[in-house]
Amino acid sequence: MIRIEKQAWDTMVAHARECYPRECCGAMLGVEENGVRLVKAARPMRNAFEGAQEDTYQLDPAEQLAVEKEARAQSFSVLGIFHSHPDCDAYFSKRDLQNSCPWYSFVVLSIQKGEFHHANSFLPNFEQTEAKQEPLEY
User: 79 vs 29, 62, 89, 107, CA distance in Å?
Assistant: First the structure.
């Protein structure tokens, strides 16, 4: 299960709205307690994909490293990645699966006509062949 605190959630939704109609991306920082990933902070990141960003995002490796250091400085871990799907459902696409990391939760926000519609979270397996939906609270 992943639980996202209000301030972190508001940051994620605001970033998705600001990036619309392009995909946004970012990291979720927090702690894991008793099998629950508790997101305490969200860190918007730049979509580094060099092409049409309406259905693709890419994290910048240098920015990822900076976020890892930022998390450790706050006694947090990077628990997962969030990104948006402009004008479509919050599903985990084949491309999302291929670019996933099995130790992260992946929260996908559906942004319809510039406004938040719904979200889902996914946990990919180590083979990156499937991602099961995980319970999400925000």
Answer: 6, 18, 23, 11
